[in-house]
Specification:
35% helix; 396 residues; Rossmann fold; eight-stranded mixed beta sheet; 2 domains; 14 helices; 21 strands; five-stranded parallel beta sheet; alpha/beta; 22% strand; elongated
Length: 396
Amino acid sequence: MLKGKTILLGVTGSIAAYKAADLASRLVKQHAEVHVIMTENATQFIAPITFETLTSRKCITDTFDRNHPMEVEHISLAKKADLAIIAPATANIIAKMACGIADDMLSTTLLACTCPVLVSPAMNTRMYEHPATQANLALLKERGVKIIEPSSGHLACGDEGRGKLPEPAFLVDCILAQIACEKDLAGRKVLVTAGPTQEAIDPVRFITNHSSGKMGYAIARAAALRGADVTLVSGPVSLTPPPGVKLVPIKSARDLFDAVTAVSDQQDIIIKAAAVADYRPACVSDEKIKKSDDDLSISLERTEDTLKYLGDHKRKGQILCGFAMETSDMENRARGKLMKKNLDMIVGNNVKVAGAGFGTDTNVVTLITADKTQQLEIMSKESVAMKLLDRLAQML
């Protein structure tokens, strides 16, 4: 997703500098051109050759190094960068940036940058919370620098608290959010539902399905990358919410219905990718629960049809998309749901097709509207999400 993009990675003197190697590697795998500038203190924690091996480019550590093409290096790097990220960012480099100090290669280059700049602080909790550091961060925010909040936990110094550098995968997501996609959904509100629901039988057991939530989370992430204001209503899954997305956790189909209908009027696009447990125990009495260890013949009733409700109450200009997972006659059944539930598009997939279904990292889907059917080849769920949003954006 970063093909053709140039990333300037600044690494400063923190024990977390070792994570920057993983970050550089992940950026290269995203096909970015990565240039690393290290402070002198950073070289005490990790060797420049590590970054040179990972990026296939010289790691810059000295403003006056003559072993590079005859150009003003800090200016040329600043001009070509599509984004600069300082990870880890010490209190020292944060203070330099706030005061406009340029006394080494990294601070000098940053002063010449006009591209988006991300700063990911990593330091002792007391240093991070010191009024001077907080004032410097606030000043950088006012100037348009994006601050990535540090994680909390056990620090290298033995303290507990805020100050940990977030995991490299999260930092990559922050970078992608800035420059990976055209912001064609900026100003739009998108609601995505994802994952399974659980219908309790008794205090121990419940009815559910095999949904992993991967497709819904991929859609939410893609919408956020394209600039949308995203709300993700998610059943119980073992996935990390994408950065910049508002997460609303739910369990039951009723929870899903309540969470979605509470905000549906405000949404420009609603994509229901959650796999609902279609049935729930009907009026299970306390006496029935006591006997359920020996008697599981509990009557069932259908859960709320959230998608049908949304279709019946769809406001003018709102786009509504659903999913139809079928095992046979997929297109006809999906098209029937499209019409019955007043949808603008439905995404059909046959769970028996190799590469589709629950828990996989790929999907094979058909995008169905009232006047068009588009069969997509097998691709990653992230790619499916982008194709889906391409179609929905055209309908706005």
